[in-house]
Design a protein that fits this description.
It is built from 20 helices and 15 strands. It has 511 residues and is an alpha/beta fold. It has two domains: 206 residues, Spore Coat Polysaccharide Biosynthesis Protein SpsA, Chain A (Alpha-Beta Complex); 232 residues, HAD superfamily/HAD-like (Rossmann fold, 3-Layer(aba) Sandwich), CATH 3.40.50.1000. It starts with a strand and ends with a helix.
Length: 511
């Protein structure tokens, strides 16, 4: 069954939803006219894109099903740092495998769009089972025939709790013209490539509903296609709660942009949620059981550069920053707060772009993924800003990030800084604010000893952490003190750390 949804009427009013191609956006609001889409794509082939994270159980069968269709010109699997052999299985099954530039489904979908060769894209999930043999044709034919620009799957699997309790009520309230979609959160969609380039890809559970609303707001022709029954992995209750929050935010933000609710409240809620998600207890509640822990400094260890230096250059604050850089006559807390004040008024977008665009140290991704394969939980520990550390964490596929939290209001920095509580000892003196305190906090919280910790850093502020860890590496150390604080020194690629870790494990077994 195919059900069409009429496009939204054209309007000259500002507030149309659109992205800026695939570049990070500064505002969700970016006025663009409604588009008159061509009748049908000239290219009759389809690029199938499958974002994956640890989908080894089913990925091969999903790929084989896609490749059986004569319409499929390529299958692209976008991997988010899987450690269960998913990329290898996907390649063996006939897919082209690429690594995502950032952890998260939305970023992976966007990477697949950039890599695709054909004018029509079909997105599938890597954990689907029970798919009908003609799935590809059923999904893409409305687009190929020029009847629709955006084709979304409907299936007989009972709608999930987030759909029933969050998505549908909000759609009925703010977007009643889309409330008839049976599976608004489903990830099986066929879309024209030129339309995708104008949509915003949320990088959380709001991505699928966000694409649906954005496409409708641009006047695209929407279709819902019945693909029968499918089997899909379910989520635990905690994950469902997180999913509901992100879906609600995606809907409400778009409603605000279109004048259906006040935008100020949505952005305030987003900022409150961001700060809450940066709290150590919230972070660690999602890490799970830990037997081995790896802690990495960010600047100079994972990032090939220093975040605040590049941020100051981009924001035109380099001269002001120079007054406080490496001022060891100031306490770390005082220096951190004064530097935060320098960035008052700088747009959040500048922070995000800087963290996304600074190059990674060669071997950073391989090191983090390799350690996770060896059973480590990997954390980024930084005295920079959590907004940046979280982006870097996603770029290298680490498990968590701990850092200071800078406040934003109306999408600009206020200069107000909350120091990372894990770095504070509660006592005065040299170690009142130090990464050593984070290591001690984490070992107590996770029920492990310092012997189970690998620490990697390059600067003076990493010395306490390096000295306390069971295995420590000074990576391209900035001083002799840093070099002496660690068990090992690496001056080449970061993934040389993996050899040291493997050697250490062999020594433990032989001992």
């Amino acid at each position: 069954m195919v059900r069409n949804v009429m496009p939204r009427k054209k309007s000259s009013r500002k507030g149309s939803l659109s992205g800026r191609g695939v570049e990070p956006r500064s505002e969700l609001v970016h006025a663009l006219p409604q588009f008159d889409w061509p009748q049908k794509p000239e290219d009759r082939f389809v690029s199938v894109v499958i974002p994956v994270l640890n989908e080894s159980e089913r990925i091969a069968s999903v790929i084989r099903l896609a490749l059986r269709s004569p319409l499929v010109g390529e299958v692209i699997v976008v991997d988010d740092g899987s450690i269960d052999g998913t990329p290898e299985l996907a390649q063996e099954a006939g897919a082209r495998v690429i690594t995502s530039t950032l952890l998260g489904k939305g970023a992976s979908m966007q990477d697949g769009l950039l890599a695709a060769r054909h004018q029509t894209l079909l997105y599938l999930d890597g954990d689907l089972a029970g798919l009908r043999k003609d799935l590809v044709g059923v999904m893409v034919e409305p687009v190929l025939r020029g009847e629709a620009d955006f084709s979304k799957a409907s299936f007989s699997r009972r709608a999930g709790r987030v759909t029933v309790l969050t998505a549908r009520p909000l759609l009925r309230t703010y977007f009643p013209e889309l409330a008839s979609f049976e599976q608004p959160l489903g990830g099986v969609i066929a879309v024209r490539r030129e339309l995708l380039h104008r949509l915003n890809f949320e990088n959380d559970y709001g991505v699928d509903i966000g694409l649906l609303i954005d496409a409708h707001a641009l006047g695209a022709r929407l279709t819902e296609v019945d693909i029968g029954h499918i089997e899909h992995d379910s989520q635990d209750l905690d994950r469902l709660g997180e999913m509901a929050t992100q879906v609600a935010r995606a809907i409400l933000e778009r409603a605000a942009v279109l004048g259906r609710v006040r935008l100020t409240y949505v952005r305030q809620a987003r900022e409150r949620e961001r700060i809450d998600r940066a709290h150590p207890e919230r972070i660690l509640s999602q890490v799970g059981v830990v037997e081995r822990l790896a802690l990495f400094d960010m600047d100079g260890t994972l990032l090939n550069g220093r975040f605040i230096v590049e941020l100051a250059r981009r924001a035109g604050r380099a001269a002001k920053l120079a007054k406080y850089l490496d001022r060891y006559d100031l306490t770390p807390e005082t220096r951190a707060r004064r530097i935060a004040g320098i960035f008052r008024g700088v747009k959040k977008e500048v922070f995000e772009r800087t963290a996304r665009e600074l190059p990674l140290i060669p071997g950073a991704v391989e090191t983090v993924v390799g350690l996770r394969k060896l059973g480590y939980r990997v954390g980024v520990v930084s005295d920079s800003y959590h907004l940046a550390a979280e982006i870097v964490r996603r770029r290298v596929f680490a498990d968590f990030a701990l850092a200071n939290v800078l406040e934003f209001r109306r999408e600009s920095a206020t200069g107000v800084l909350t120091l990372a509580p894990t770095m504070r000892s509660g006592r005065k003196g040299r170690l009142a604010y130090d990464k050593l305190n984070t290591l001690r906090f984490l070992t107590r919280r996770m029920g492990i000893t310092a012997r189970a910790v690998l620490a990697v850093g390059d600067g003076e502020n990493d010395i306490g952490m390096l000295r306390a860890a069971g295995l420590s590496v000074a990576f391209q150390p900035k001083s002799e003190r840093v070099r002496r604080a660690a068990n090992h020194v690496v001056t080449g690629r970061l993934d040389e750390v993996l050899g040291l870790v493997n050697a250490s494990h062999r020594g433990e077994r032989s001992g």
